[in-house]
Each structure stands twice: as C-alpha cells, then as structure tokens.
User: What shape does this take?
Amino acid sequence: MLNETAVAALEQTGAAEPEKRIRDRGATERAILKAAKNLLAEEGFQNFGINAVARRAGCDKQLIYRYYGGLDGLVEAIGADLGSWVKDRIPEDTGGMFLLTYGDLMERLSLLFLEALRDDPLMRRIVAWEVSENTEQVRRLSEARSKALGLWLDRMRGSLAPPKGVDTAAVNALIFASIQHLVLAAAAGGQCAGLVLKNGKDWEKAATALKRLVRGVYG
Amino acid sequence: MLNETAVAALEQTGAAEPEKRIRDRGATERAILKAAKNLLAEEGFQNFGINAVARRAGCDKQLIYRYYGGLDGLVEAIGADLGSWVKDRIPEDTGGMFLLTYGDLMERLSLLFLEALRDDPLMRRIVAWEVSENTEQVRRLSEARSKALGLWLDRMRGSLAPPKGVDTAAVNALIFASIQHLVLAAAAGGQCAGLVLKNGKDWEKAATALKRLVRGVYG
DNA sequence: ACTGTTACTCACCGATTGGTGACAGACCGG
DNA sequence: CCGGTCTGTCACCAATCGGTGAGTAACAGT
Assistant: This one.
C-alpha cells in the first residue's frame, strides 16, 4: 500500500488530487486570505477559526501562523483588504447627477449605502460582528471598515455645506444605523421589526420610507 | 481526610461551602434560568453553552438536560420569561401625558424604547444574536422578543389613528432599527458611525436627533 | 424500617478547538 | 554535488465542547 501512494504521488495524475499544492508562497497567502474572506462572508464569525480557514484554503493551519501570525494577523489583513471596497463601490455617473441640496445628497447616499450593503455579505458579517463582540480582532476590523466607509463618503460627497441648526453627525449616524440594522435583520431573518423584507417589492417600500425619513429632516 | 470532609458536611458551617445545594427542584430550575439569563446578558451568546450555564448555576449540566431538555429548551424558557419585560417597562404616568398626534406618540415611544433598550443588557444581547445567526434557537427567541415588543407597543399606544399616505409600518421599522443599532453599537464599541456615545451628554444629542427624525416624518 | 422515587453528582465518551515541534521535499547559491 | 533555506505536511498536545449512563444521597409512603 505504501507503494501505491508513492506511485500516485509520482504520477500526479490530478484526478484523485483536485489541486496539487504547488510551491508558491504568494499564491498560498492569497488563497488563505480569500478563504478567510469567503468563510467569514458565508458562515459568519461564529465558526470562524484557524481550523476552518485552513480547511477551506486547503492548506495546513501552520501556514496561517507562519504567514499571518495567527488569526489576529489574518483578520488584520482582511481589514487592510477592505480598502478595495471603496473603489468597487463608486458609481460612475456622479457627474450626471445634480445634487443641489444637502437633502439630495443624503437621499442619494442613503440609497446607495443600502444597496451596497445589501449585496455585500462580507461587510454585513463585519457589521454584525461589531455589534456582537468587543475583542481586539473586531476592534481592528471595525476601525478598518469605518475608515473605508469614511473614505467612500468623502468620495461621494461634493463640497455641499451641511444645513445649520441640525446636528448632522447625530442625525446621519441614526440614518446609517437604521440602514445597517434593516439590512442585517433582513439578511438574518427576512424581516425587521415586523416588516417583511424578502422580494424586491418589499425593498422598494423600505427605500421609499428611507427617502421619506431623510427628506423629513433634510428638507 | 475522609473524616474531615464528613465532619465538615455534617457541620454545614457554610464558610468553606458557599452555598450548599439543597434538595429543591423548583429552586434549582430557577437558579438555572437565572444563571442562563445573566450569562447571556453579561457574556453574550458567544460563550453561551451547556457547560457555561451549569458552571454559573453551580449545578451539574445533567440537570439542565433533565429540567429543560437541553439548551434549546432553556433558550425557549428564556423567551417565555421575556414576557415579564412588558410589565417592567410600562411607565405609570401614561395618563398624565397628552398624546394629541401620531407624531407625539411616536416621539414618546421612540425615546422610551431607546431608554429601555439602553439599560437592558439581556435584550441587547438577544437583538445582537438575532442579526448574527439564524438557528432555531435564535428564531424562537426572536419570535418571543417580537411578541413582547408588540405587546408593549399595544399597551403604550392609545387609539390614535396613523396618518394617511405614509407607510407607517416601513417608517417605524426604520426608526426602531436605527434605535436598536445605535444602542447595540454603543454598547459594543462606545460609538456608532463615528458618533461617540459614552456619557449622558452624547446620549442627549442622540435623543435630540432621534426626535428630529421622528418629527420630520410625522410632523 | 424497608422500598421506591426524586434530586443530584460524577466519570466518561468522541469530537473539535487553538497551538506547537518535528519532519519531508523542492529550490537555490556556493 | 552539497548544504542551507523555504514551503508545506503531519502528528501530537491540552483544553473544551455537547452529551450520556451509572451511581449516590435525601426524601416520602406504607
């Protein structure tokens, strides 16, 4: 039997061996990072661990320790990689829109953020992780996300002056909080505070309500 | 040495033995439920398991299987116990307030809900659990919470007619979503979307913004 | 006082977790 | 060709997890 395995290894037919791990550190590092991101996006942070990542990446967990210094470093790498979120989420037709007032801007940003978060499972998991735990890992990841989001907002916002007499920081925090919780609750259970959110029609109603909310404070 | 322990047991001085477990099924059941609730409220759902609950309750985990049928039954018992949330959270001065419009009502409800959620760690953990997982346990708990919240809203709401032309279900879902996420994020990291939420002054600003948001849609 | 039921504890199981040290093979510079 | 470094694999560790079966001590009924 020892002979058989040796012969198989020498042959490298690849039929039984789906992917022969070649000797390429860069590729392995990328595979690990990709596996971690996918695992986090699909399974959530509950079963996110060294063993699970290594299993999905198809390599030994020892390599995660060697290349990323353990789970913490890997999470940090995910956070650093989160910067790519910004350039993927900038629509091209910003010039074609006429954002005359702060209300126009916030309405557009809210809807864009809603849509962006709705089809980005990784980002959703990170947000859910943020409100569930307070470890060093999460703190780093949260910081990276906040930074990426801030950068995104900067890119989207023109040079519109915010209205006076309104605590825009607090109001906007509430608006974005509502969007995040809505999307998270919908992704988890298909509804939020009794409001069913499954098909496109449900989401249209939510978007209309969101517009109304934004227009209510920002004219 | 065997003599020593025997003597100690007979003496029941209680100095070395903090709490001698007496033979009382009802008390034990209550101790388990209380331990589970406290554990969930303090530690979160991450380290919530049979062993941890039994450890905190100071009894053997076997009793949890016997009395509650495992963790699932225990979680269900927590959910059933959640009904007590309603009667604890109904202010006594409802008669003293004059809620003339739907806007008055929603403003008051929003602020009450914000305050209630802010000093109820167990409820916070459950909400965080809801948006993080989708197991049967969480689903049951979520249903119980939703029911309790609905009952609370019914008790608080008079017979005010909602305004026409507004999707109150969607708008209210957004409002409550914003409150929940704000409180959760604050409890986890002390801030929400860049808005620091630590001392009372911060929360006053948030409450003002919330009022403005509600008044914006409901006049 | 004997008996059976109830309340409770203990010891063990297999599986999985995070983590580490030792080893095998490919590659490269000398 | 040889020795060292780099990449990857494997075996093992203690700890913890959920779960179960067997055993013990206190009580109640007769």
Summary: The first strand of chain B starts at residue 191 and ends at 192. Chain B has two domains: 17-80, 84-218. Chain B touches chain A through 50 residues (CB under 8 Å). Residues 168-189 of chain B form the longest helix (22 residues).
